[in-house]
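Open question from group meeting: does this chain pack into something compact, or does most of it stay loose? Before anyone orders reagents, we agreed to write out a predicted structure and look at it together. Recording both the input and the output here so the notebook holds the full record.
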Amino acid sequence: MRFGLEKYEMFLENTVNHKEQFGWIEVICGSMFSGKTEELIRRLKRAQFAKQKVEIFKPAVDVRYDDELVVSHDSNEIRSTPVPAAANIPILADDCDVVGIDEAQFFDDEIVKVCNDLANRGVRVIVAGLDMDFKGNPFGPMPALMATAEYVTKVHAVCTRTGNLAQYSYRKAQGQDLVLLGETEEYEPLSRGAYYKAMLRDRLRTMKVEDPQEVNTPISNTPDKKS
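Structure tokens returned:
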């Protein structure tokens, strides 16, 4: 049996298919310092080089490096439009071939509908964001985006303590607010084992152990129940 390799195309190399009325969604996810934004910028710049009309958006709350640039941790950058809510994107993305969205976890749930509506209009939508928050729980709209996307790429950082692949974003700074913009001073990429041990140490610092069995209670990554 022969495979038609000459006809096989990686989805990252696809350009706009003018015979097809529908686009698609690509999601790039992972921990902090895993290269999500770097990969997003790479794909968007390739589209720009191909003379496709590209628009890039990020949440207005993200002003770590620049008000209007999407900037990776290694200083790659691309011009973007900050928006306060996902509902602003379709208005600004009119007649685009490709739409890029960074830090998608900070958007409201409307971002899922926005991305699917754009794809249904024939737009290639490339989304980057954290798949888990610092507690190890699925982050905001990312699970729904990953579920409805045609292509999902999970990238990994390198654990600063073990050298293994890191998938968790461990928060070194104090505070329980879900949204805390930061860099290496506030966050550290950790592997599963390193993250579990770090969370256990944090737990022991804050708890008063009256029953030794409490220390052996597993740390759960399940989302907190809402009252």
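Observations to bring back to the group:
The first strand starts at residue 24 and ends at 30.
Confidence is low (pLDDT under 50) at residues 1-11.
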